[in-house]
């Protein structure tokens, strides 16, 4: 059972990936300082897998505390690095905070990878590295354009840092560029849990439907798309998490002859914001209160993936469609509502 360190393991995608890793035979430890997450999500993951999961409450921007994790766990075979700030709008408002947090934490982690000879490293990247592409769908070879936000730039810079790092050390790396993860685990024991006002579409939709938010704001109705709203590639979080485990399998099996591999993780199907809203209304039976307003700084008009390389090379099989994404997200929101104490504390940012 190779030991995998998952950074940001109490977060949305991190917790789902921990579940998938354990279900496929890996030993897992987590590091998460809970600045933007809650231990309740990791506890939900523990219920799914039926065992405890060790979490180190450490800020990766603190090198000494980060290094101590590796001193205590010298048998770490690989790392999946999720821990980062990820809100596009916030990054536009506070760019220095994003550059400092996302890049310092990455560099500190890579220093430990080098010192402790960790052989495999998987990076949580993003389709934001493509900027506003000239042509869609994007492939891994699509030339990156200038990022539309400081968040996007931190992912571009992170990829560049890892690429150069992989040339200088004996560590193989994978960059996973995923598109718009949504939905929740079918058990409804873990899902997306933003602390404070959500910035991603689907939690805004579900919180509006259940009465926590008054309205869904659609940012822009005048884009050159089917209905004027932004077009995205929504992908179920369980499909995303499965790809991370497959990436680790791929590296450990020695199937890559490259120092650094890149994979797009998307469904390959573009869905507009308004189409996503209609899909939710269909599966939930709820009528959403939404309003089309002005564009939001940092948003790309349209992007979706060509995922053929990941499907072929990793053996990745996409199992969930847009209806599944919305129904599992809604089931998760209803589960939260049933736990009134959890629900009332959710937006107070309590861990």
Notes on the protein architecture:
The chain is an alpha/beta fold and 351 residues long. The protein has one domain: NAD(P)-binding Rossmann-like Domain (Rossmann fold, 3-Layer(aba) Sandwich), CATH 3.40.50. Helix content is 42%, strand content 16%. The protein contains 12 helices and 13 strands. The chain has helices spanning 12-23, 39-49, 63-72, 88-93, 95-115, 150-168, 201-210, 237-252, 273-284, 308-314, 322-338, 340-346; strands at 3-7, 27-31, 54-56, 76-81, 120-126, 172-178, 180-182, 216-219, 231-232, 234-236, 260-265, 271-272, 290-293. The strands form 4 sheets. It has a 7-stranded parallel β-sheet with strand order 3-2-1-4-5-6-11, sandwiched between helices. The protein has a two-stranded parallel sheet with strand order 7-10. Helix 6 (150-168) links the parallel strand 5 (120-126) and strand 6. Helix 5 runs parallel beside helix 6. The longest helix is centred in the first third of the chain and has 21 residues, at 95-115. It is globular and about 55 Å long. The two termini are 30 Å apart. Mean pLDDT is 94; it is low at 347-351.
């Amino acid at each position: 059972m190779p030991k995998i360190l998952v950074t940001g393991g109490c977060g949305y995608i991190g917790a789902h990936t921990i579940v998938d890793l354990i279900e496929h035979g890996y030993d897992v430890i987590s590091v998460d300082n809970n600045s933007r997450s809650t231990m309740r999500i990791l506890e939900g993951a523990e219920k799914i897998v039926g065992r405890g999961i060790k979490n180190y409450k450490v800020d990766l921007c603190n090198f000494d505390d980060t290094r101590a994790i590796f001193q205590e766990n010298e048998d770490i075979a690989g790392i999946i690095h999720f821990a980062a700030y990820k809100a596009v709008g916030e990054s536009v408002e506070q760019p220095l905070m994003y550059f400092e947090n996302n890049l310092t934490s990455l560099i500190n982690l890579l220093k430990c990878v080098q010192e402790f000879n960790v052989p495999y490293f998987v990076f949580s990247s993003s389709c934001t590295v493509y900027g506003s592409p000239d042509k869609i769908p994007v492939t891994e070879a699509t030339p990156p354009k200038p990022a539309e936000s400081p968040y996007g730039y931190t992912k571009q810079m992170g990829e560049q840092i890892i690429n150069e790092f992989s040339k200088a050390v004996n560590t193989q790396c994978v960059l996973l560029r995923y598109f718009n993860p949504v939905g929740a685990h079918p058990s409804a024991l873990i899902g997306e849990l933003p602390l404070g006002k959500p910035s991603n579409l689907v939690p805004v939709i579900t919180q509006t439907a259940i009465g926590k938010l008054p309205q869904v704001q659609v940012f822009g109705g005048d884009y050159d798309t089917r209905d004027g709203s932004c077009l995205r590639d929504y992908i179920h979080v369980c499909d995303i998490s499965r790809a991370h485990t497959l990436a680790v399998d791929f590296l450990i099996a020695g199937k890559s002859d490259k120092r650094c591999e890149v994979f797009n993780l998307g469904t390959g199907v573009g869905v507009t914001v308004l189409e996503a809203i209609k899909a939710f209304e269909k599966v939930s039976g709820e009528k959403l209160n939404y309003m089309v307003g002005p564009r939001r700084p940092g948003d790309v008009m349209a992007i979706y993936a060509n995922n053929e390389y990941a499907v072929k090379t990793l053996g990745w099989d996409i199992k969930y469609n847009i209806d599944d994404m919305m129904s599992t997200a809604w089931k998760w929101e209803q589960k939260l509502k049933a736990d009134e104490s959890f629900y009332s504390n959710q937006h107070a940012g309590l861990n």
